Amino acid sequence: MNPKEQALLVIDVQNDYFDGGKFPLWNSEATLVKIEAAIAQAQAREMPVILIQHIADASKGPAPFFNADSEGVALHPRLLAAAPNAPIVIKQHADSFVGTTLAATLQALGVKELLVCGMMTQNCVVFTAISPQAQGYEVSILPECCTTVSEMLHRIALAGVATRMTLAAGF
User: Fold this and answer.
1) What angle do CA 47, 170, 14 make, to 5 degrees?
2) Could you write out the DSSP letters of every residue in 87-113?
3) Which of 6, 31, 48, 60 gives 20 to 30 Å between its CA and that of 111?
4) What are 95-117's pLDDT values in tens digits?
5) Beta strands 88-91 and 6-11: pairing type?
6) Do residues 25 and 13 touch, judged by C-beta distance below 8 A?
């Protein structure tokens, strides 16, 4: 497929998921290194990169993490350095399509294939990849560019979603 018809979706690589944050994940630093490499590869192929940021719904009261205006809600600075011109889609749900500009952004870019990565594997990554709004796209998850609270949960989530889509080693 033409790389310009593909998009790399990088979900929730935010400060709260790293050491010092409110909810550090297993292997987050090593995963960020792999995500940076995937972004560089996408950029070399002139493939669009889209960053997705979760901000907790303040109307529901304070959340355990990702509260607006907190240091933890910010996208990781290395992610922003790797993709400084990438559009940022703000979300409040696990599915990155729900109540966001993601579908319109993909349509405007002429995207037909999604390469999905980020944090957390079993939640936002999987729910975005299996979203009803993703059904018109060829969807793959980049397993080495995802993480969650433990290696076991990461592997269980990937095994579960593998019956629905490709798990791509690189791209």
Assistant:
1) 75
2) -EEEESSSSTTTTSSHHHHHHHHT--E
3) 31
4) 999 999 999 999 999 999 999 99
5) unpaired
6) no
SS3 category, 145: strand
Sheet containing 88-91: order of strands: 88-91, 49-54, 6-11, 113-119, 138-147, 166-167
Give the Cα separation of 162 and 135 in Å (integer). Answer: 15
pLDDT digits (tens, 9 = 90+) for 65-80: 999 999 999 999 999 9
How many CB atoms are closer than 10 A to CB 34?
18
Q: How far apart are CA 96 and CA 125, in angstroms?
A: 8
C-beta separation of 9 from 134 below 8 A: no
Q: How far is CA 59 from CA 62, 67, 131, 164, in A?
A: 8, 11, 24, 34
CB 52 within 8 A of CB 102: yes
Q: Measured between alpha carbons, how far is 94 from 120 in angstroms, rounded to an integer?
A: 9
Contact 133, 103 (CB under 8 A): yes
Higher pLDDT, 170 or 139: 139
How many angstroms separate the CA atoms of 102 and 148, rounded?
23
How far from 111 is each of 19, 105, 107, 151, 158, CA to CA, in Å? 34, 9, 6, 31, 24
